[in-house]
Every structure is written in structure tokens, then in C-alpha cells.
Amino acid sequence: MADIEDFGNIEVIFQDEEDKKAPRCPHGPTILFEIKCKGEKNGRRFYACSACRDRKECSFFQWEKEKVSEARLLAREQQNLSKLPPFSHAQYCARFREYASLPLDQRRFCVDCQILLLPGEWSSHSSHHILSDITVSQLRRPSLLLCPLENNKSNAQYLFADRSCHFLLDVLFGLGFRKVLCLGTPRFHELIKMQSIDNKSDPIKSLLLDIDFRYSQFYGQDEFCHYNMFNHHFFNGEEAAKDFLDFLTEDGSKVVMVADPPFGGLVKLLGHTFSKISEIWRKLQGTESSASEMPMVWIFPYFFEPRILNCFPSFTMLDYQVDYDNHPLYKHGKSGRKQSPVRLFTNLCPKDIVLPKEEGYRFCSICERYVSGENKHCSICNACTSKNGKEWKHCPECGKCVKPSWLHCSLCGHCTLPNHQCGQMGCYNCGDQGHKRKACPSKGKKNLQQQKSGKGAKGTFSLDTNKTTGKNKRGKNAHGKKKMVR
Ligand SMILES: C[S@@+](CC[C@H](N)C(=O)[O-])C[C@H]1O[C@@H](n2cnc3c(N)ncnc32)[C@H](O)[C@@H]1O
Ligand SMILES: [Zn+2]
Ligand SMILES: [Zn+2]
Ligand SMILES: [Zn+2]
Ligand SMILES: [Zn+2]
Ligand SMILES: [Zn+2]
Ligand SMILES: [Zn+2]
């Protein structure tokens, strides 16, 4: 049975075995989407890229039943090949060995091309910006050498601040994990590897899975796989998939998965991948193990809580605020830390994850978890209810705790911002005040017309369909926050 997620206008269709037969874009098998049109029982289905939310980055589009000519298939194949990294991972490893054996004054890095240069290549980069005398410690910290791909909407490479990176490592080490599967966490992977050099007697192993192939230059095939987390695709095929399985099985030590995906990515696709990994892990445990889910930490903004819990009911959202170095909104500033909306979602036992007292977190013995200092326990809800770290207040009419700045509006029938246009919020989709988006008669129609006119899938509509980040007419997301993309 197909599993369908409703994103408003567009839904994702999972078909499992059939998914393997989906046409491929440069980012691996594409995803089947369905667009619904009013009055039609069945929507129209099409394939589009799993990884790129911006059609400019990957313009793949094909109707489900569309006949594709041999010539177009060939052109597509060539296009996919042309997007492959310039070297294979094995070649990158051989280059690295040669590079590391060079004397310091011959170790150069091309900033423009983001590549470690061998002496024979210097002349072709002579007009480029070059860094020289690359030290061993620089080679151990590729996340500092490479420039983060933060402007690229699909990569959204925001790197952990040291504070958050060390906190995470200390917690997981303390809980006895000696293997970490790092999904989209290059800086965390790097920290684990560095600490293992310092702590040879009790090291932690780490395998990084990330779409940023530049990391192949620095890590062996047992340390890094070029990977797409939206469709669980290994770019290096069977060989890399085997390295991943070997990592999960080797030496029998406790493994945890830590994922920090770009948060414009579709939650349902990520949940599907993480479940798949967990299932692979479970099967590898053998029959003796009663554990049913792999230990996981999914790092994502708090306002995705309902959808993450929908994918993983066993997860808890922790109050810990994750900071990033290169994100202007979420890092420690001169004037103190701006509150980061990014949290840890995990199936680890919340009471075991001790949040730092010096940052104001405290233990709530009723909820049996650490919470932020201002998150007060509400005796009516019987929980520490704040999501954003500020003190929330209980509204008897709504029967739940709400943000302190909200007021109960009897006309709207719930708590909301005091300066909202009462009763005039109308429909997200068309602005009409007579109905809400769910009942919108033009839901889906606009997009389909755009596609028919040839603008649709290639340019106009976006698969940036996480409702909470989707911009509405007021330039705000569904939570009244300014849209945040990372
Ligand atoms: C928000 S950053 C997280 C980095 C992490 N905070 C760290 O410091 O290690 C997102 C990461 O996911 C990677 N990424 C983006 N899209 C991906 C995809 N489709 N598959 C796998 N990794 C992806 C990016 O290259 C980036 O490293
Ligand atoms: Zn693609
Ligand atoms: Zn260059
Ligand atoms: Zn509590
Ligand atoms: Zn309450
Ligand atoms: Zn209320
Ligand atoms: Zn109102």
C-alpha cells in the first residue's frame, strides 16, 4: 500500500520496492509526488528530485506515466554522469596519501576549487586563491578549511558551535556509545575523530554520511560515504553501502545515529530514511536483542515537533538549544546568545541527558527530564510546557499553555497574537476570508495550471513543502515567525 503524506498541494508517495525503479536524477532515485486538483479523485503523479528544494539546482521532472524517448534517457544519463565528483573516492584517498607525504611547503589548497592540490596541478590553478603550508591539524579539521555551503539552499551547511558539539559528544560518550553514525554532521564527525586521537585507550568510531563530496578528500571509505539522506542513496553504490553495513556490525559496540538535516527538507522523507536505517540496524542485531529502534538523535527546530513525533512516537524533544557557528540567528553574539529554535529529538531516555546547569537548565522531577530554566511546570497540563525556552502561561479556555505574548481571542476561539487581524486571517492559499486552507476550492488548481502552462515543475512551484517553513502571503510561516531557511 502506498503511504501518502499530505503537504497541502503536493503529497509524497512511498512505494518501497517500486521506489528503486524510479527514474534517477544526479541525486539518485527521484521521489514520486502527487498533486491534487479539485474535483479529481486521483491526483496527478510525477517524479522530482529528492534532495533539491530549488528547481534551479535540480530541474528533474517526469510525469509518472510519461513515455521517455531513448534520446532523452541517454541525455539524462549523460547529465547524471557529468554531475559526479571529478575523482572517485578511491582516487581521492590515493591523492590524500600522496598529499600527506609532501613536505609542508608543498601542501596547497585551492580555495576557488575547494581541492587539495598535488604539485603537478599547481600551474592550472595559478590564478586562483591558494592557501599554502597546510598543516596536519588543518587536515584534521576539514570543516574549517572548506567553506560551508550555506548559500546553497539544498546543503544549508550550518556547523555546530564548539559548545554544542562538545556537549553532544560528552553526553553520548557518557551513555556508553562508542560508535556514531553521523548523518549530515561533518563537524561532529571531525570532533569525534580528533578526540579518538587524544583518547586512544577508549576511542569512539564515526562514519559520516553527507551529500557534500568534498569530504571524500579527507576521509577513507570506512569514515565517509557520499550519501543522500532524502532517499537513502549511496552515490558510490554497493561498495559504499557495504562500508555502511560493516560499520553498523563491526566490533559490537553501542552505536547511535546523529542527524542534523537541512530543515527545509521534507520531514516525511527524512523519517522514512531514518526508519529504514533503524530497521537495518535492528536486523543486524540478531534475534537475541529485544531493542526495536536504533538509538537516534535528530536535530531540528522545535516547531517540527508534531511531525517528528508523528514519524517517531517514541521520541522526546529536549529543551537543549543547539548553536551554530555560521548562522547569524543562532549563535552566541556579543550581546549574549540569541535563542536558537533548534532542539534534539531522541529516543534516548530524557532523564539520562543531563543539560548543563551553568546554562540555566534544571531537572523537573515530575517530567523526569532536564528543562530550560524559564520552562515552568504547569500543574494543570502536568508538564513543563514551554517549547521555546521562555515561560509559558496556561489558558483555561484553550486548555493548554501558550506563549506569554499571546492573548485569548473569543472571536477566533483560541489564543493568538494580540495584534492579529481578528476574524480576518482568511485562507492561507487564496486569502479568502470565508474558508480555511484545508477547504480551499482553489487548492492545487493554481499549481497544476502553472505546470500545464509549462512554468510549473520547472520553475514556479517549489517542493519546499514543509508547511511550517512555507511562506504565506504575509511572509511568515504557519507559526507567525519570519521564514527561516538553513
Ligand atoms: C545543517 S548542516 C549540519 C552540520 C552540523 N551542524 C555539523 O556541524 O556537523 C546540514 C548538513 O547536511 C548535509 N546535507 C544537506 N543535504 C543533504 C542530503 N540530501 N543528504 C545528505 N546530507 C545532506 C550538508 O552538506 C550539511 O553538512
Ligand atoms: Zn536531483
Ligand atoms: Zn583552483
Ligand atoms: Zn515538569
Ligand atoms: Zn498548562
Ligand atoms: Zn486561549
Ligand atoms: Zn481573533
From TrEMBL:
GO molecular function: nucleic acid binding; rRNA (adenine-N6-)-methyltransferase activity; zinc ion binding
Alphabetized Pfam families for the sequence: N6-adenineMlase, Zn_ribbon_GRF
A GO cellular-component term linked to this record: nucleolus
InterPro entries: Mlase_EEF1AKMT1/ZCCHC4, ZCCHC4, Znf_CCHC, Znf_CTCHY_sf, Znf_GRF
Places the protein is found: Cytoplasm
UniProt xrefs under SUPFAM superfamilies: Zinc hairpin stack
Domain GRF-type: 25-67
Region listing for Disordered, in residue ranges: 441-486
Biased composition range(s): Basic residues: 470-486
Recorded superkingdom: Eukaryota
Chain ranges of the CCHC-type domain: 427-442
Keyword vocabulary terms for this entry: Cytoplasm, Metal-binding, Methyltransferase, S-adenosyl-L-methionine, Transferase, Zinc, Zinc-finger
Protein name in the entry: Uncharacterized protein
